[in-house]
Task: inverse folding
């Protein structure tokens, strides 16, 4: 097993290396979120052990970027001292496969890693997102609705992936702009144009719109019972 440990507590990192290397595993480590994200995106690991509270980029945001922007589905176990239910839910919604509260026993981490790897192998890490009759294959990048192939240019496809992963929740404009342009969004309202194009392609010819504007909040992709949601992008 090749593991990436993203953790700023060097004593804990040393314990993890001693324990897992003695069992024949290979480990890399990163002491902060930005370094960890770089390693996780540029290299293939069997699993990642990720601390929540990291310098430079916290674990939850790192995981969001890894899943939604880099499209990496490496199994992740999140480590944290936070033990409230709301924190656990937040971690899972960010893309964590499992959650372990500090302090923890190393054998428990080992069996949890074995479990997430077994689940990943059994599921084949399926890479298809689906909302209602809209499908996005993250492997082939093919988008279809009702069995008909849709043609989206890359920017719209990135927005679609973020919206589908979050569905039925609202995604803020700031988060969508960051998906496309990072920390340097354009001066013009180019996001509005992209969303108009996304809506035009996804909802064209369908009696059930899926792309909805939520005034003063952002956008959502969902089948609404009353067909509600602003029609303009």
Result:
């Amino acid at each position: 097993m090749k593991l990436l440990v993203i953790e700023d507590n060097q004593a804990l990192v040393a314990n993890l290396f001693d324990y897992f290397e003695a069992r024949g595993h290979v480990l890399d480590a990163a002491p902060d979120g930005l370094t960890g994200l770089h390693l996780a995106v540029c290299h293939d690991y069997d699993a990642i052990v990720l601390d929540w509270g990291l310098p430079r980029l916290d674990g939850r945001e790192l995981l969001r970027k890894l899943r939604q922007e880099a499209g990496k589905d490496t199994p992740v176990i999140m480590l944290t001292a936070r033990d409230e239910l709301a924190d656990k839910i937040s971690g899972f919604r960010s893309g964590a496969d499992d959650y372990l509260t500090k302090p923890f026993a190393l054998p428990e981490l080992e069996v949890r890693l074995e479990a997430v790897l077994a689940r990943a192998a059994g599921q084949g890490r399926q890479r298809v997102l689906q909302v209602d009759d809209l499908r996005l294959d993250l492997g082939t990048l093919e988008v279809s609705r009702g069995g008909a192939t849709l043609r989206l240019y890359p920017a719209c496809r990135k927005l679609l992936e973020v919206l589908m992963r979050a569905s039925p929740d609202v995604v803020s404009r700031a988060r969508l702009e960051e998906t496309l342009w990072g920390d340097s969004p354009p001066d013009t309202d180019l996001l509005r144009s992209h969303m108009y194009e996304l809506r035009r392609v996804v909802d064209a010819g369908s009696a059930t719109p899926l792309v909805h504007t939520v005034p003063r909040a952002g956008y959502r992709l969902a089948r609404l019972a009353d067909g509600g949601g602003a029609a303009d992008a």
